[in-house]
Specification:
single chain; about 170 residues; 2,3-Dihydroxybiphenyl 1,2-Dioxygenase, domain 1; five-stranded mixed β-sheet; 4 helices; about 20% helix; about 30% strand
Length: about 170
């Protein structure tokens, strides 16, 4: 099957947001790049390593935004360590962590971390399992936590790097 699009080079996505300033700060931290353009109505990010043109738009109508229809945005990272590092960076940046890092075995087995942006959109940071990791699947397929909980996690937390909440794929 051939694609309808001849030689695609960039993915473009626009989201309406409830608070443009808060969302701009969140996505600048998430992507590790400054906004390319910013006005009172929108902010544009060009994220070269993702081949992404990402635009945040103000909610012109003032109607409640439906964050249910867009289930989530996903960003794949290199491995389990990158998911865990992304968690530490997200915590340090004050991001809303919906689900801390864990390995899930049902459906597509993944190492995953779930965040929520200022509008309420969910963001999944994930890494696919290696064959060796997949072989570690427990018989009951219960999710496996990748970081300790509570105060222990805070004590052992490494300081994030300065660039972005998640690792850039190599």
């Amino acid at each position: 099957m051939s694609a309808m699009i001849a030689a695609p080079g960039e993915f473009h996505l626009s989201l309406r947001v409830t608070d443009l300033a808060a969302s701009t700060a969140f996505y600048a931290s998430l992507f590790g790049v400054p906004a390319k353009e910013r006005t009172a109505r929108y902010t544009t990010f060009v994220v070269p390593y993702l081949h992404l043109n990402f635009v945040l738009l103000v909610n012109d109508k003032g109607d409640p935004l439906d964050t249910y229809s867009l289930y989530h945005l996903g960003l794949g990272v290199a491995d389990r360590a990158a998911v865990i590092e992304s968690y530490h960076r997200a915590r340090a940046a004050g991001a809303d962590i919906v689900k801390p890092p864990r390995t899930t075995w049902r459906g597509t087995p993944l190492h995953e971390l779930w965040l929520r942006d200022p509008t309420g959109y969910l963001i999944e940071i994930y890494a696919r399992l290696t064959e060796a990791e997949h072989a570690e699947m427990p018989a009951d397929k219960a999710p496996t936590r990748l970081v300790a909980n509570g105060s222990e996690a805070r004590r052992n937390e490494r300081q994030p790097g300065p660039e972005r909440l998640f690792h850039e794929p190599s």
